[in-house]
C-alpha cells in the first residue's frame, strides 16, 4: 500500500465533545463490512461515515451508501483541498474518509463509525488519539483465503496481493484497543457491542 501524505493544514486535532470516533479495521475478506451493517441495524443512532474510493462498484453496491465512487482526478482534487480525514492507496485504488461530516457529527455528540484500512487507522490515531479502535481477525488465515477466493470478484494477481497485505495487517492487530475474531457472526457482533458500550459509558 502506498500512503499518500496529507496536505499541510489538512489534519484536524480532536476537540472536546460528547461524541466519539470508532474505527473498525481488518484484512480484506474478514467480514468487517457485514459486521458493520449488522451493528448499524441494531443501532441506527450511530453515524456511519461513507468512504470515497476510486475503485469500481461491485455488484449490489450503491453510490453514496456503500461508497462515494469517484475518479482518481476527483479524489486527488479533494486531497489537495484537505477534504479527507485520512486517505491511502490500497490494491491500486484510493480510499478516503470525508472530513467535514465526521467532525460535525462528533461535535454534535454522535458515535461516528469508520470502516477503514490499516494505514488510515494509523492516521486517525494521530489526529484522534482517543478514538476507539477495533481489529477484526479471521478464525484462521486459511479461512480468510477461502473467503477472498469465494467472492469470485478478483483476479489471481489481486487475490495474491490481498493475501500478502492481510498478513501484514494481521501482524498489526495488537496496535488496536481490542481484537475480535469473526468466527461465529452473532458472537462477534455482541463482542463489538460489549466493547463499545463499556468504553463509551465510562
From TrEMBL:
CC annotations in GO: cytosol
Positions of the Guanylate kinase-like domain: 19-197
An MF annotation (GO) of this entry: ATP binding
Residues annotated to bind ATP: 26-33
Pfam families for this protein: Guanylate_kin (PF00625)
Name of the top EC class for this enzyme: transferase
Subcellular locations according to the entry: Cytoplasm
Chief localisation class: cytoplasm
Gene3D superfamilies: Guanylate Kinase phosphate binding domain, P-loop containing nucleotide triphosphate hydrolases
EC numbers on record: 2.7.4.8
Reactions this protein catalyses: GMP + ATP = GDP + ADP
Function: Essential for recycling GMP and indirectly, cGMP.
HAMAP family attached to this UniProt entry: Guanylate_kinase
Family: Belongs to the guanylate kinase family.
PANTHER family according to UniProt: GUANYLATE KINASE, GUANYLATE KINASE-RELATED
Name of the protein in question: Guanylate kinase
Species this chain originates from: Anabaena cylindrica (strain ATCC 27899 / PCC 7122)
Gene: gmk
